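Backbones bend. We report:
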Amino acid sequence: MAPSLLDPEKGEKSAHEPLEVPTAEIASSTTTGKESGILNALGRINHRIEGLSGFEARGITRVPPDERKPASALADLQVFILWFGANISANNMTTGLFGPLIFGLGFRDSVLCAVFGCFLGCASTGYMAMWGPTSGNRTMVVLRFFMGYWPSKLPCFLNIVLMVGYVTLNFIISGQILSAVSGGTMTTVVGIVVVAVVCWVVAVFGMFIFHTYERYAWIPQILALFVLVGCAGPHFDSTLQSTGDAVTLAANRLSFLSLCFYVPNSWAAAASDFYVYYPETTSKLKIFLLTLAGLFLSFTLVYLLGIGLASGVTSNPAWADAFAISTGALIVEAFDGLAGFGKLCGVIVALGIIANSIPGTYSAALGVQVLGRYGKAVPRWVWTCFITVIELVLALAGRDNLLVIFGNFLALMGYWIEIMIVIVVEEHVLFRWKRGFDWSRWEDKQYLPLGVSALIAFLLGWAGAILGMYQAWYMVGVEADR
């Protein structure tokens, strides 16, 4: 019997090669012949698409050292620009709103929690990013060396859900902003579709187009945010004080700090995906510091803007009315007084969220391939199309109420990332500091660890996170049962 053509883990065919079957097999079965013809046709279509200029055909296959791009100052700068440009976006600005509006924190408390939480989250992501050039493997493939082939599939699945959820929220917020800019003449639905299409095109083509897009997309975005600072800054209330007794205040400070830590930290599950083409000799410290700098500066800027807007909501009736409509309406209202130019800035801010959505969609598609050989048999660009459709459908279906549901769900989902990072750090520092890994054996189940200890640690950590959750989260379910 001929080997399965859809089993690339066993080395029969790579995903981008035209599919072929032996002529004897075709002659033996009419049904098999028809199936083979379809597979050959699909293989030719895939080969033609992956032959497009600038198209990245590679999926999760390791990038060997001889196929990496040469080191350059531009490549080093791209590390910083990638994270800075992707995260100076309105969706991250909404995190800052939680300090004053949800946790009842004052301006100073909110700023301190945001800055310190952000730094810790960015540092952990910077640590995971350095494994990209070192290994030439995607993040969830790297995790196989620390957690084992089978246990690593659990965080891989969680990461797919996390990335899809985040991008869904991004589409909703973008649609809200574009709708608010148009005064309601453009519906949120149209805005969501516009952003989804642009995200899909860039994510399908892969790293080359993605890096090119990120290299320039941040420029109008940062200018629009500077305009927002000048326009809305006078309405920020820096005298806003925290509310609640000492115990409540301590809990709220810790909760907001954790939230500001978690959001940049969520990129850790995809951090090395974008550096697999960097030379193997690239300095780990350089990748860490450039990633940390790009993330920290971008997140700090939008966090502080979000905190400022939230402080103004408490004292500015126009902002409060806009916030009652949507987060996007609040951001547009903050440009009030600039007439048409303010609307232009609102559009730029809305489209800036695309830069934050592309890497999430890209990494989710890679994650599907990591789950197993059948996922790997389907080209990355096909999974990208499929995932974008899911994100679009979820955003359209939940544009009115899914924002709150996903916000609660993703907050719970985020705990597993830090558990994953702790496992990686322990394995790296305590057991592999001197020995290292043979990164070329990323599919060798005999070489990769069994991962029983890592799986137990992961599940225990997850259980501890659930037990430590805010009780009000459970009370929602109790009230619903009543």
In short: The two ends are 60 Å apart (CA to CA). The CA atoms of residues 168 and 395 lie 5 Å apart. Confidence is low (pLDDT under 50) at residues 1-31, 475-482. The chain has two domains: 8-50, 72-412+430-450.
